[in-house]
Automatic annotation (TrEMBL):
This is Zinc/manganese transport system substrate-binding protein. Residues 133-159, 324-348 are annotated as: Disordered. Keywords: Metal-binding, Signal, Transport. It comes from the Bacteria. Its main location: other. Pfam families: ZnuA. It is found in: Cell envelope. InterPro entries: Bact_metal-bind_prot9, Lipoprotein_PsaA-like, ZnuA-like. The keyword Phosphoprotein does not apply. The keyword Transport applies. SUPFAM superfamilies: Helical backbone' metal receptor.
Length: 348
């Protein structure tokens, strides 16, 4: 499994974020002289606060109308890595009955708020749940039910765990357990909803298995290393040059050599599909998308954030369907007839 990281917070942004957290801590303290304010929403339902709309959608699939869900980031264009939390965000997290977030460095503002607020509300951290699958025998579980700000992370893992369907199913089960503790009389409702959600995920896994059976080893290129876990489970071979990936992750301009290598791969029709993330588009990724299309290589979209008006299951189903359709409708990239590439432009 390839371990990927997106760009980290710049020092200037970190300073601003720290100042924001100090202000947030003052707001929280003012609410209750350092004590956690009364939890629950105005509706009387438990409130689940999620770092992003992705995990908010998973929580909503389990809790349904029995809970209120608030996502701190619900803008598909936002970057959780560099998001600067506000005092209002801190109050939401501190008032939450349950906090669901990604972890692994993807949404660090949540852990910062938890550390500053000192709340004792239960948390579900997806990255730590994913790490539990990789524990050695006899090693204690890494994903506790409550906030432990100094606990170590599985830093070697891929942070984009919402693209790993089994992990998402485990997160749904953990959410159901936590909601049951909050509302024991609705245990059956939560467990049934989690089971139905997991059934949807298993159907998606079956489609990935079908892709693997029909297209195992076929090559893909991705403009951003977001869907690696899904690509791997589909049995595909990501041939995006590693230096290019590292540059994208760090927010730097890729070296000329890695761009040239990428161009050679596309012009040689090596990838069967190019996977484009429009949420992180740049002149370079737009050039790559255009060049692939002019070479007759299908380009599909896979995003890092949940699009508006989509549930998690709908989002994943559409992306997997697009991937399967693109692969089924095209021969393997290396055997594709070469076309005229004189029209393509040089990279920016």
């Amino acid at each position: 499994m390839r371990a990927h990281r997106h760009r980290r917070l710049h020092r200037g942004r970190t300073a601003v974020a720290t100042a924001g957290l100090l202000a947030a801590a003052l707001v929280v303290t003012a609410c209750g002289i350092g004590e956690r304010p009364e939890s629950g929403s105005a509706t009387g339902k438990p409130t689940v606060v999620a770092s992003t709309s992705v995990w908010g959608s998973v929580a909503r699939a389990v809790g349904g109308d029995s809970i209120d869900v608030e996502a701190i980031i619900d803008n598909a264009e936002a970057d959780p890595h560099s998001y600067e939390s506000t005092p209002r965000d801190a109050v939401k997290v501190d008032n939450a009955d349950l906090v669901v977030f990604n972890g692994g460095g993807f949404d660090p503002f949540i852990r910062q708020i938890l550390s500053a607020g000192g709340g004792d509300q239960p948390v579900v951290e997806a990255f730590r749940i994913a790490g539990e699958h990789e524990r050695h025998p006899g090693e204690p579980p890494s994903g506790g039910d409550h906030h432990h700000p100094d606990h170590g992370h599985h830093s070697a893992g891929n942070e984009h765990v919402w693209y790993d369907l089994p992990t998402v199913g485990d997160v749904a089960d953990r959410i159901a357990d936590e909601l049951t503790r909050l509302q024991p009389d609705k245990r059956h409702v939560f467990l049934q909803a989690a089971a139905e959600f997991n059934t949807e995920l298993r159907h998606l896994e079956e489609r990935l298995a079908r892709i693997a059976a029909n297209h195992r080893g076929e090559k893909v290129i991705a403009t951003a290393p977001v869907a690696d876990l899904l690509i791997e489970r589909a049995g595909l071979n990501d041939i995006t040059p590693r230096p290019f990936v590292q540059a994208v992750e760090s927010g730097n301009a890729p070296a000329a050599a890695s761009i040239a290598r990428l161009q050679d791969l596309v012009d040689a029709r090596q990838p069967s599909v190019v996977i484009h993330n429009p949420q992180t588009a740049s002149p370079l990724t737009e050039w790559l998308r255009t060049r692939a299309q002019r070479n007759g290589i299908p380009v599909i979209t896979m995003t890092g954030m949940l699009p508006a008006n989509r549930t998690y299951s709908e989002w994943m189903r559409a992306q997997i369907s697009d991937l399967e359709t693109a692969l089924d409708s095209n021969p393997r990239g290396g055997s594709r007839r070469r076309a005229d590439t004189d029209r393509t432009t040089d990279p920016p």
